[in-house]
Write a structure and sequence with these properties.
312 residues, alpha+beta, C8orf32 fold, Immunoglobulin-like, 5-stranded antiparallel beta sheet, 31% helix
Length: 312
């Protein structure tokens, strides 16, 4: 009886968090499209919400739905000159940067991260900016790099550090300015998932029991947002596949209620269904291949991209 009660409380708690997100989002949708200062933005959030997770969600939701990615500045050095400042000067520069992002409503990833950090600081929620490398294209698989190209956040909620990427949540497109296709897959995302697309400079921010190496990261597949609710679990995180007449991918588990598809680089826009063969406790995807198909393979959950591989 006690076990059933605990299970019921766990389920209702999880449901309430889910409902809280919808409730928070619906309130923030009616927020002004612009704020004059971070302080006023934070005060608005504080007047509407009480818990740290609600406040964090509100700040994240507004930023990811109102700040556009600045593609024109994307190739500039994000934190140019930061290392020349002492701590007090650095904080001043970062705060001014975050205020400017709020004013201009456009930025690269550093700006999203700094803005979220300083809004949450006003709300007395611990937040850090994480610098590192984000892998987004198949051509990057197998090429080890050391320079930073991305920033995201770690937020201290429910007595533990959790991860957020507000930039990747916008769904912005380079050729469609002002377009938002909000996706909250990167809100409090499991560290075990994010690590395969986001590699922090400081390994402590991997937030996993057994940190992976940069070698493992750069040789892993490309993980798309559709992966996180796909039900797929790869047996080995290898992003390079040797070409053969049939390509085999091994999965520890799949969702048998879902239909998965594949597509090659040079294929038409039509997606082809994947056939799985159960071998022991593994599910093996057998996909026909010809050199005319190209050098990239993408797996889809319905019409959402999940995983991409390089073919050699």
């Amino acid at each position: 009886m006690r076990t059933l009660l605990l299970l019921f409380l766990l389920i209702t708690t999880q449901l309430s968090f889910s409902q809280d997100y919808k409730s928070v989002d619906s309130i923030v949708k009616n927020y002004p499209k612009a704020f004059k200062s971070i302080e006023k933005f934070a005060k608005k959030i504080e007047s509407d919400f009480t818990t740290d997770i609600e406040k964090t969600r509100a700040a994240y939701y507004w930023i990811s739905n109102n700040v556009s990615y600045d593609y024109k500045s994307a190739n500039s050095v994000r934190s140019s000159g930061y290392h020349y400042y002492d701590d007090s000067e650095l904080k001043k520069v970062q705060l001014e940067y975050a205020e400017n992002v709020l004013k201009e409503k456009k930025s690269v990833c550093e700006g999203y991260s700094q803005l979220l950090k300083y809004v949450l600081e006003q709300l007395e929620v611990k937040c850090e900016v994480i610098d590192g490398y984000a892998k987004t294209e198949v051509k990057e698989i197998g090429k080890i790099k050391n320079e930073e190209n991305h920033a995201w956040n770690a937020v201290y909620l429910n007595e533990k550090w959790q991860l957020i990427d507000a930039t990747w949540s916008t769904g912005n497109e380079e050729n469609n300015p002002g377009y938002f296709n909000f996706n909250d897959a990167y809100f409090l995302i499991r560290p075990e998932y994010l690590i395969w697309s986001h590699f922090p400079d400081d390994k402590k921010w991997q937030l996993i029991k057994k940190p992976i190496s940069n070698l493992a990261f750069f040789y892993s597949p490309i993980f798309h947002s559709g992966f996180y609710n796909s039900g797929l679990e790869l047996t080995k995180m290898k992003g390079i596949i040797k070409s053969n007449r049939t390509i085999q991918l091994s999965f520890d588990s799949i969702d048998t209620d879902k239909i998965y598809y594949y597509q090659y680089t040079e294929s038409s826009y039509n997606l082809e269904p994947i056939e799985f063969i159960k071998k022991g406790n593994k599910q093996i995807a057998e996909i026909p291949y010809s050199y005319k198909n190209g050098k990239e393979l993408t797996i889809f959950n319905g019409f959402k991209a999940c995983l991409s591989f390089k073919i050699i």
